[in-house]
Amino acid sequence: MSAPGAVVEVRHRGLITLAIMLATIMQVLDTTIANVALPSMTGDLGATQDTINWVLTSYIVAAAVMTPVTGWLSDRIGKRELFLVSIVGFVVTSLACGLAWSLPSMVGFRLLQGLFGAAIVPLSQTFLLDINPREKAGQAMALWGAGIMVGPIIGPTLGGWLTESYNWRWVFLINLPVGGLALLGCMAWLPKSTLRQRRFDFFGFAMLALGIGALQMILDRGVEVDWFSAAEIWVYLFLTITGFWVFGVHILTKKEPFLDPRMFLDRNFVTGLVFIFVVGIILLASLALLPPMLSRIFNHSSITTGIVMAPRGVGTMISMLLAGRLVRKVDPRLLVMAGLSLTVVSLWMMTGFTPQMDDRLVIWSGLVQGLGLGLVFVPLSTVAFATISPMFRADATSLFSLVRNIGSSIGISVVTAVLTRNVQINHAEMAGLMTPYNPVLRETLPAAVAGNQATLQQLDNLVNLQALMVSYLNDFKLMMLITLCAVPLALTLRRPDLSAGPPPAAHAD
Fold first, then answer.
1. CA dihedral 241, 243, 249, 250 (to 10 degrees)
2. Of 1.20.1250.20, 2.120.10.70, 3.20.20.370, 3.40.50.300, which CATH number belongs to 276-509?
3. Which of 292, 304, 455, 470 could potentially form a cystine with 448 if both were Cys, beta carbons 3.0 to 4.6 Å apart?
4. Is the dihedral of CA 235, 236, 237, 239 positive or negative?
């Protein structure tokens, strides 16, 4: 019998890949597509501006908590069976979300949707690694990465179009035909997998779930309650530290822990986790900043914002397809460093944004950033799993997805908090210069010095605009520095042998 997770001979590899990617894109889209529909949901569900955010929080927390258990479930019931159950559950709960009649019902359905959807992304990566030989691993990760990276980019645009053209319920109902096609394809062509008997380490899972869930609550609730000025954030912090600390000690001392610590002996995998954390910060943090910036400063609609940001997705797809072919011929470490360097250049270009510019700089910087992130993601996804034992693959891919999602959540929370704080600071500093004793103000706006209310209002609007713009530039600089610091980490990766041949043997015994 082959080792669990080893490459198997399959028919209809292309059709399997298509079905898997349909399910993957469906799940990834749901992490961002609902954001733009929240204002429309508020009135229909009888929610307030604060409580409606639980529609997002419930999904994120449920998915984060359930992602690490993917490996154990796939070993117990089979990867194919778990994938099919996840698709069916995700589609059914999407229908329920589209039919929700109140905020509690919506939050409950989103919670279930997150639970069912958690396994889809890590299992899709596992399947693509299983059904493709090692020499085609780069191309397989290019296709998988295209869905993972492009999904969040087109999500807000698609959600805005569905909400404006129909109503917010179609943001969830759109999953039905996509999920149906994915389900039929997977049922028809997805190969069966080998089962593996593993005891469920409930205590280890509980501690990891406690740490992850509490961390997500900090990140999602922090902005609303002013971070550590609220008692609940301190409670979440205590639970986060306790959960992760106890879990770390537990897996090092228990005979059969929830996650086998031997997988962390693979240097490429551990370095890959660090890199995907950074990529998560850059990818969704910039996605969280650009749409509101284009809306608040440049008065773009959701559709226009999507069109302006589309070249970013195009650049990502181009570089991923290119990297999928280059990863066997070029040192993957050079591709990662080149991708990070392009990302640094794009963020530097974004620090040159001004309220008076047109969309060209946004488009070009987005294109360069897309090219850079694509060059990072494909070789990183390939190298991270090139040397790890196949028996750890399902657990490893679930951790890979989990760390990427945590990085995204942290990145969004940090840039949002920094933006809010800098807006207040910049506004106070600029407003302090707007006095009758300022010679420039006396020359350019004498009516403001004279106390004309209309002119003073225009001046205040101008100060607000400039303070907001400078705050966005500060965030772009922060992200640029984070990315720049990550470039030397590429040297810690080992160049694996990606030539044709069997996968590495399960060396855990």
1. 180
2. 1.20.1250.20
3. 455
4. positive
Is residue 59 within 8 Å of residue 109, measured between CB atoms? no
**DSSP per residue over 108-156, as a string?**
HHHHHHHHHHTTHHHHHHHHHHHHS-GGGHHHHHHHHHHHHHHHHHHHH
At 200, give phi and psi (nearest 5°). Answer: -90, 120
Q: What is the CA radius of gyration of the chain?
A: 24
Domains 1-194 and 276-509 in one fold: yes
pLDDT for res 449: 61
Q: How far apart are the first and last CA of the chain?
A: 15
Sequential DSSP letters for 10-78: -S-HHHHHHHHHHHHHHHHHTTTTTGGGHHHHHHHTT--TTGGGHHHHHHHHHHHHHGGGHHHHHHHH-
Q: Reduce the secondary structure of 437-505 to three states and give it as a string.
A: CCHHHHHHCHHHHCCCHHHHHHHHHHHHHHHHHHHHHHHHHHHHHHHHHHHHHHHHCCCCCCCCCCCCC
Report how far residue 131's alpha carbon sits from residue 320's, in angstroms, rounded to the nearest whole number: 20
Note the pLDDT of residue 506.
38
Write down the pLDDT at residue 85: 92
Q: What is the pLDDT of residue 5?
A: 44
CA distance 324 to 238: 43
| The amino acid at 202 | F
Non-local CB neighbours of 387 within 8 Å, separated by 6+ positions:
266, 268, 269, 494, 496, 504
Distance (Å, whole) CA 288 – CA 147: 18
Q: Residue 424's pLDDT is what?
A: 84
> Which residues, at least 6 apart from 268, have a Cβ–Cβ distance to it below 8 Å?
383, 384, 386, 387, 388, 493, 494, 496
pLDDT at 238: 93
Q: Which residue has the tokens 């609550």?
A: 217
Distance CA 341, CA 348 (A): 11
pLDDT for the residue numbered 456: 67
Q: What is the pLDDT of residue 448?
A: 61
Residue 352 has what DSSP assignment? T
Domain 1-194 falls under CATH 3.30.70.2690: no
**Residue type for 83, please?**
F
Spell out, as residue ranges, where the chain has pLDDT lower than 70: 1-11, 49-50, 134-135, 137-138, 283, 302, 433-438, 440-453, 455-456, 496-509
Q: Could you tell me the residue ranges of all domains in the chain?
A: 1-194, 201-257, 276-509
Q: Rounded to whole angstroms, how far apart are CA atoms 244 and 204?
A: 10
